[in-house]
What does this fold into?
Amino acid sequence: MSRRPLTERAGSMRTPPGQRSRRPAREPRAPNDQEQALKQRIQRQCEADRALLMAAQPFTARLLMQLAIVAVVDDRLPTAGTDGESLFVNAKFMARRSEEDRRFILAHEVWHCALGHHRRQLGREPDTWNRACDYEVNSLLRDELGYCPADALYHRRYLGQSAEQIYADLCQHPSRSEQGSVLDEHDITTLATLPGQVMDPDFNPKPVTPEGARAWQQRLVATAQQFERQQGSLPGHLQTLVERLRHPQVPWQQVLASFIHQSLGGNRQWLPPARRHVHSGLYLPSQRSQILTLAVAVDTSGSCQRDLPHFLSELKGILGACDRVRLDVMDFDACITQRRTLHEGQLHELEHWRCQGGGGSDIRPVFTALEQAPPQVLVALTDGYIHTPSHTPGYPVIWCLTEGGRVPAGWGQTIPLEGGCVRPAMLDDLLDVMPPMRRG
It folds into this structure.
């Protein structure tokens, strides 16, 4: 009996028990004809949904007109997402959603752009921040549309709250992050770099830039002005939101957090975070060999005592995620009355800090004491009625002024704790003069 050649028989041999057969990996492919037809159908549906929104929610629809809707079939984009110029939707995902859901998702995407969520993240933990942003948008749209998908993140407690406020609440109550799911993908630029079995050439998002984020804020204000001229005032919640963007303010905690995050950031390679998220809402990845050196000067005058506990608690929260911290804390009146150096394991002592001194008047001894080992930044809690050096030091200084305080010097950055906010330009100015990180 003739036998087949060994090369032929090899293909028919059974795989030995306990071993998986090795199949060649399939090459990525573009959408097939059936998927292309689905793309075209969903594209038409989404454009029709946008037109219907113009009658029902004209303000949101006007914003949505500034995004190009692009239906795709791509494994890398399971739901929807936007880069600020295009709104990409997975055709298979949208085909499973109701008409109301589709309109909600389109509106959801454009409000991420209008609210500038990408530029507001700073150092916050990405997953929790994404959920906070969805809560903010969904609460706004639920109030405007009277509808929210059943599987979306929504709770009436968050109506009127910013993503930053919601983020802080989610950090305090992690279980609330599990009540629903996100409807979209927030970092589609990264998704586009990943491999996939079906890769649609139409899925080509652009990187989100700070300029693009600022442009969206300007578009929102301009669209609101046009809407008010043609159709009267905006609904109450939208009016409040637009007014906030017309006259933006940055919380003082965000100024401090932004500086610290930027000083630890850059293009370095980060390790996993050293600690759990902190109550202040800032997430800082850790890096071995990096030391954050921060000096804190506390004016011992009576006006500062009221704000001191909250101020130090916020500072502890901001620093709590840093892998290595050197904190130089000084009380002063006419001289330095108390000085202690704290490291990351001692930050809890800030919550029980008690000032020593009889009323602040001269911060110059603080600057003298720092000459031999300058910090990366000096943060001074004061009412401003103090003597200051005539020249600037070689590092940034942040004056945190208590209620009724005055600007103590013509240099440094001033943050009024009363009202808790500063101009956004102040944050940019501070980061412009930030020194490079010291290595320990």
Summary: The mean pLDDT is 78. The first strand starts at residue 68 and ends at 72. The chain has 16 helices and eleven strands.
